[in-house]
Amino acid sequence: IVITSFLVASSRVQLTFTSDLNQAYRVERSPSLTSGVWTSLIDRILGTGGMITTNSLIQSHPAEFYRVRRL
Known about the structure:
Strand order of the largest sheet: 1-2-5
Strand content: over 45%
Order of helices and strands: EEEEEE
Largest sheet: 3 strands, antiparallel
Shape: globular
Number of helices: 0
Number of strands: 6
Helix content: under 10%
């Protein structure tokens, strides 16, 4: 998985990543890299073998970290 694009516009985050065909993915967010607590934003995204773009609202934390995981 490679995050190829990360854009912030107004109150939204757009994240684009590579995918494998028929592989399921989850996009997660955390307010801290050290807390160990990640919140699922989008679950069960089915891979197409190409790029996948997701959108989500920004939370009111001073910082946010994102990751994509294989399921």
